[in-house]
Amino acid sequence: MSKTLLLVHHTPSPHCQAMFEAVLAGATAPEIEGVQVVRRAALEVSPTDMLAADGYLLGSPANLGYISGALKHAFDVCYYPILDSTRGRPYGLYLHGNEGTEGAERAVDAITTGLGWVKAADSVVVSGKPGKPELEACWELGATVAATLTQ
Question: How many CB atoms lie within 10 A of CB 124?
């Protein structure tokens, strides 16, 4: 039986795009079988998308010390409809910011704690242009969360 991993992202910059592509490559690695990765832009995700998923990857820029308005919107739209149905599901987070990402990390921690989601891997937080080590960490994040669904 196939599991679904939902990748909810806001990707407005080349740096966020590079991180998104690395996370996606890890999540869809050939050695991870039985996981379907569904991608949704944060402004387009619905409660139905969230309910249909077995796990989540979240990606956002950190704007002015907080998650993007798009990712906040995704949670605003989905939070109450999924509140009691998604407890215990794994998630992973990647953020890109030039400075002050702590507020964005705290926001996602608070929201996911409220939902009862379980962090499957350490968050990947990148400042400035992501280099090879940062992109490898993004790949590992995607692969780890996807592999969690196969257990």
Answer: 24
